[in-house]
């Protein structure tokens, strides 16, 4: 009954949810056929991630104000994390292999989508999974496919960032991989998906609005063989960009 009431009072969000599911299935299936017939390629990975992300942003009325990402070779992109919407944004703007929680494999099309985009799902409670993830990140970057990793490990309403986890910075420092910081901030702080809020509840409440405005900023690449210094510099850049966005 509760879901029925939500649908009744949020018809726009319901239509958007159906379109999101349809486009996720469509893009993933095309990617799967591409993978089976031609094998994995960076071109395929960019098309699947980019097409999916841009289409979802359009469907959901998400308008993004952004600067240009600095030109860099292989890198790890590290954004702060406000909502599941961040995933659509980074896929649309910076198609790359994503590192995410293993739990999201239960979402529709996620497991297959991870295969066709070379994304990495990690079980943080499993030490073996963490070691495999570290290896996969290095392999992805070394093969020319950048990696997107949220260093907070979970969503946070802000205004700045939570404590960053160490593991991702150790990978970058040990592998001599540049980190590009990325700041994500919603014009409406209530667009963040945090605490015990359910996905369906948040989706219908937030995407029942005609328009959602988001600002993103890419920072300058950071290279440091000391993972603590790398972590500190990345956090400083992201928080500096967030402060600039919020003061505009």
Automatic annotation (TrEMBL):
Its main location: membrane. Keywords: Acyltransferase, Lipid metabolism, Membrane, Transferase, Transmembrane, Transmembrane helix. GO terms for biological process: lipid metabolic process. One of its GO terms (molecular function) is acyltransferase activity. GO terms for cellular component: membrane. The keyword Zinc does not apply. The chain crosses the membrane at residues 6-35. It is found in: Membrane. InterPro entries: Plipid/glycerol_acylTrfase (IPR002123). Residues 75-187 form the Phospholipid/glycerol acyltransferase domain. The keyword Transmembrane applies. This is Phospholipid/glycerol acyltransferase domain-containing protein. The lineage of its organism: Bacteria, Pseudomonadati, Bacteroidota, Bacteroidia, Marinilabiliales.
